[in-house]
Amino acid sequence: MGRFAKVAGFIERHEAFFISGHETPDADALGSEIALYRALRHLGKRVKIVNADPAAQKYAYLDPEGVIDTLDPDPAVTYSLPEDVASWGHFILDTNDIGNIGHVATLILPYVGEYYIIDHHELGDDLFTDNHIEENASSTSEILYDLLTELNIPINLEVAVALYTGIMYDTGSFIYPKTSARTFGIAHDLVEIGVNPNEMYQHIYESNSIPALKLQSKVLASLELYYDQHVAVQTMLRETIAACGARYEEADSFINVPLKSKDIRVSIFFKENEQGILRCSLRSKGNINVAAIAQTFGGGGHRTAAGFKSAFRLETIKTKVLGMLQSYFESGSE
């Protein structure tokens, strides 16, 4: 049996598939979705990509044909399902938490024949048995590259661009802890296929809108420092998004800005979307496991990059999260 024998079996059992990623899909979720979509289409399958939230405009180059569908933000609005939906399979990518796929979990998932997770995040529960989860992989896109290789599915330039995008984003341009020699080897192969690294960087990091730039200035102005200036907290309210004329998904990289300071060990970003849903993103350096914090509140992620949707009001969840960091900082808060 090959490394991806169970995935191959899942593909063989169905002639049609949904593909979905996590809420507010990032470059790895989108890149792996497009790559798997093209792979399944190559095998003659019917495929629909459906996400709960729209992608940032800067990722439009990944989907020039508009194959990624987005659910209505109102979960009460039903999604038109195929008549034979009970025979469809459903791939969940870049998250191992079904609660993290938004109302895809209620409008589509209950009606398909079965679902299968491909992911690389740390686990809160044991999901290894019936899914493909590699915690040491740099990204879901890295796993998808190996999947396509094992299944002898050709990787053309479009797929290579999608995979490179996901890998570059989730490794922080090849610097995060899970970046390995294998990661660089895959990137090498993708560049040989025709990917232009400079163009990929420009798409992801140099394509934000002017409203997004204004929004970033407002968010950075909200910066608060705790624990002897080792923990940074930023806040973004929906009123701020509206005032700047920006979109929620354009704030996806703001969490990383405080980490540019050598003194900041944890960056926390509380962000409210246009519907008033509050989420918390966490990033860390060194031995601080922010995934454990996120899992406490029903979320997940990596040791150094995690997040969750908050059931609490802003000030309450801020107090709780900061309290959970106290054991790492003996000097106490500011």
UniProtKB/TrEMBL annotation:
Domain DHHA1: 246-310
Pfam families for this protein: DHH (PF01368), DHHA1 (PF02272)
Record-annotated DDH domain positions: 17-167
SUPFAM superfamilies: DHH phosphoesterases
GO molecular function, one term: nucleic acid binding
PANTHER family reported in the protein's UniProt record: BIFUNCTIONAL OLIGORIBONUCLEASE AND PAP PHOSPHATASE NRNA
Protein's name in the database: Phosphoesterase RecJ domain protein
Taxon lineage: Bacteria, Pseudomonadati, Spirochaetota, Spirochaetia, Spirochaetales
